[in-house]
Structure formats: structure tokens, C-alpha cells
Amino acid sequence: MAKPLHPFLPELQHDDVARLDFVKSLRRFLSTRVLPGNAKVYEQRVIPRFRATHGREPATRDEIRAEMVREPYYQLWSALQRRSQEMLWEAAIEPIQRELPELIKKANAAVNRPDRRGSLRLNPDLPLPAYNTEMDIHIQPGGYHHEWANDDIAAGAIYEIGVGMYMPDAWGAEGDYLGQLAVANFRRAWPDRKPRRILDMGCTIGSSTTAWARAFPEAEVHGIDVGAPVLRYAHVRSEALGVPIHFSQQNAEATEFEPGSFDLVVSQILIHETSLRAMPRIFAESRRLLAPGGLMIHMDIPRGANPFKQFMHDWESYNNNEGFARFMTGLDLEAVAVEGGWQKDELSVERVIPNYDKSQMAYGDEYPYTVLIGNR
Amino acid sequence: MDSNRKTPARPPIRVSRTAKGQRPQNFQDPALDKLLGIAVSLAGEVSVLRDRVDTLERLIEKSGLFTRKEIESFEPGADARTERAADRIAYIERVLLAAHRELDEIDSGRVARPLDEIIADYANRKI
Ligand SMILES: C[S@@+](CC[C@H](N)C(=O)[O-])C[C@H]1O[C@@H](n2cnc3c(N)ncnc32)[C@H](O)[C@@H]1O
User: Fold this and answer.
1) Would you call B4 and A135 a contact, using CB atoms and an 8 Å cutoff?
2) Distance (Å) from the C-alpha of residue B125 to the closest C-alpha of chain A?
3) Which CATH code is given to the segment(s) A155-375?
């Protein structure tokens, strides 16, 4: 099989690839051929039935949900979608578990090597936020934080293989598409800016951090996360890819960095996995870390333009352990940032539309990302 | 065929396949959720076998002779990958026929009345 991108991914055997391919095909089939039927069932069955009893159409995503979960068509789609998500992780874990002792040994030999260009700093005493530990987010077994062995990196490898399948082929060979999108958006808005110190919050395995570091090779780039196994993996991975990044285990709500020590603070799809309590703190911390004139750019997932699509997006909250994601719908991000100490006139919200193959996306709409920008 | 021959029965480090968090129940009877899960797993394993057979056939065609090692390192070219992806969609469509059955009714506008009603009509000589 093709050589893995770097030495910390397992070698895939014939049947590993076949299992991963099956899950990819199943998910593509579900999103292109089965999912669209939900809208038909809604229009042709649910709306008329609801109208007959209420004299009007369902008005909110929750009203729609209450009806749709009774529809056999929706039930079957939902059960299959859930199963496909489980199998995605199962297929990823299979080869990783097989090679894990070897992968951990290799990683241990690579951590903080003398010839490194970036660094890794872990803090075993850092408490994990409840929103990370209550459920394993998007049902990745063990989440971002669980360690199955000493010095574990499994969560990182599982994430890298798994996310590559969540929207197959959408993220690019190095999985850095989101980072590239954020960088392109930044360059469009501020063509002359060359940030010197960049912080990526909730960096996981550093896929997007890498895009920032590649775009600004002069800058000192930091990535923080709360999960130790993903950070270990991020460190050895980015060294193997030749991209210097400083990773540390810190909570984005309150970091150890000096005030004013960055001129760019970013995150990619971090905030929908936090909480209403954490968000203002994260925005406040971003502000504290920025030097005057610095920029905060938090990019997050789309939530659907009408109640039906919002209901479909909410599937993630009820079936994919994304408990908080549904609270992002209609949320006034600027107001949350004001709660975190920003001035209203320093803030703006933009939409960024990625150009990847729409047939790969579970909800099939144009999929604009929301970007909260704070200009200090 | 043991397609997992390199996975030791008791791996030195076990990684759980279960995520923390309540599993949603989609059907009235939770057993149905489980049964569907098993059915999809089986479909997946059949798909794995299909790919393996495809590999075998292509290798045979190529050389007339092959070893197991060749299978493990077989690299499908771009054409083979595209064909496989299309074949796989067709295969999934066959296995998941149930997903479409209901929609067929809506799409064709041929919505049948409840069977009880029809039988009652027979009984009452309405048809
Ligand atoms: C969806 S992932 C982010 C993906 C990544 N930014 C990328 O672009 O590939 C969310 C990450 O945020 C981390 N995280 C959640 N809350 C955090 C917090 N308060 N501080 C730091 N990291 C956090 C999680 O551990 C997880 O790794």
C-alpha cells in the first residue's frame, strides 16, 4: 500500500484500505442518495400531517425534530449515518491498534529530539474541561484525551485517519484544507500583514497550524490543546513534515502566555466543541494575548439556513456526541465576544464558503463557515 | 478466509471501539438498532472481500501467478480506484434497498392504501 504521510501513521494492509474505502463509499451513498429523501418525507408527509393538526407548518427545528424522529425513513437514515460514523473510527482503529506499540516507540524517540525545530510541552496536571470529557466528541473512542498506554499517540493517529474520512478527500493530502482556507481568507483581508507570533487554539494534531506555519515561515507559531495524546502526535508529525511549531498543553480559556505576546490568535472548528460558559473566556483570553493592533480569528462550522436544515445539522448533537454544536445555531458571536470584554466596534462576523466537493457533505448545502474577527 | 491474519488475537494495547456517551436509539425497539449495526458491519466485511477478490482477479490477469505478499502491496491505479468506488456504490445500493423503498412510493406517486382498508373493501364488496 501507499506509504503513509509520515512515520507515525500505521502501514495500511489490503483489507484496512478496503474497510476504510467501504466506510467512505457508504457515507457518500448516504449523503447523496439517502439523506436528500428526508426533505421529501418532511415536505410530503410531515408538513401535511402537522398542518392537519396545528393549522400551520412547523416553525422551529425542535418542532420539526419531534415529528421527523417518528418517520421510519428518517429513523433508518439516522441509524445508518450513526453506524457509518462508528465504523469510520473502527476502521481507523484496526491498523493503529495493530501497530500501536511500535508507533509509540517511534514517537518517544522523536519527541524533543536535539535537531527539532519546534517543541512539545505537556502539563499532566492540567484539568480537562467537562465539555471534553462528558462524551467522546463525534464518537471518536477515547476522544482527544484518553490514553490507552503510556506516552500514547493513538488519539492523534485515529483522528488523522478518521477526519480524512469524515468528508472524504475534502481536506487534502495533509488534512490542512481548513487551515489553508483560513489563511487565504486572512490574506484576502490583510494582504500586507506578516504576523510574527501566531497562536492556534484547539490545534489537535496541528493540521491547520501547519498551514499557518507554512504560510508565514518567519513567524513563531504556537499550537495549544488540552489533549496530551493529540499533542504528542502533533509534535512528532509536524517535525516529520518539516514544519516548526511549538505545541503545549494548555486550556484556551486561560493560558500561561504573557499578555500581548501574539499578533494573531486563531482557531479552526474549536468553538462548537466548547460551551457557552467557555466561549466568552476563550474570546477574553484571545484578547488578553493580543498586542495592540493584533487580530483574533475564530472560524467555525455552519449551522443551516432554515429550520429544516438546522434540524438536520442538529443530528450531530443528538447522534454524534456533538452536544454543544446545536447551541451555535443563530448564536450572536459578537455578543459573546462583547461578554468576553471586546468592544463592539472591534468585531465582525464573516462567512467563508469552501470550494470542496459538496456531495461529500452530510447536509449538502453550501456549507459556509462562520468567522468571528476581533481587531484589537 | 482470515482477512485479519496479522492482527494478534490479544493485542498488546487494546483500543476500545466504543465512545463514551449514550448511544441514540432510532427505532422503537432497541434491538433493531443493534441488528442494523450488525447488518451494516456484515455489509462492510463483504465489501472488503469484494475488493480482495477484485485485487486477485486483476493480479491474475496481469501475471497469471501471484503470492500473498503481492496482495498486501497491491496498489490499485487511478482507473481501478475509480471503478471500485463506482462498483461499491452500486453494491451498497443493493444491500441498502430498504432505504429507498419508501421514497419510491413518494417519487412514483403510487401510494398504496392500508391493506386493512383494501381487505375491508373486499369484504364489503366495494371492490
Ligand atoms: C475539532 S478539533 C479542532 C481541529 C483543528 N483545529 C484542525 O483544524 O484540524 C477541537 C480541538 O479543540 C480542543 N479543545 C477543546 N476545548 C479546548 C480548550 N478549552 N483549550 C484548548 N483546546 C481545546 C480539543 O481537545 C480538540 O483537539
Assistant:
1) no
2) 30
3) 3.40.50.150
| Opening angle at CA A266, ends A263 and A269, nearest 5 | 175
Chain B residues in contact with A148 (beta carbon < 8 A): 13-16
Helix axes A177-189, A207-215, angle to 10 degrees: 40
Question: Crossing angle of helices A207-215/A228-240, nearest 10°?
Answer: 40
Which of B22, B36, B102 shows the shortest C-beta gap to A73? B102
Atom number of ligand 1 nearest to Cα A129 = 19
* ipTM for the complex shown: 0.73
Taking the domains of chain B in order of start, what are their residue ranges? 28-74, 84-127
Which protein residues are within 6 Å of ligand 1, measured from CB? Answer: A 129, 132, 144, 178, 201-204, 207-208, 224-227, 230, 251-253, 268-270, 273-274, 278
**CA A2 to each of CA A6, A17, A163, A240, B79: distance values in angstroms, whole numbers, following the listed order:** 11, 10, 18, 17, 16
pLDDT in tens, A297-347: 999 987 788 999 999 999 999 999 998 998 999 899 999 999 999 999 999
pTM attached to this predicted model: 0.89
For A91-128, how does the pLDDT look when each residue is reduced to its tens digit (9 = 90+)?
999 899 999 999 999 999 999 889 999 999 999 999 99
Using the 8-state DSSP alphabet, how is residue A37 labeled? Answer: H
**CB contact A44 to B (< 8 Å):** yes
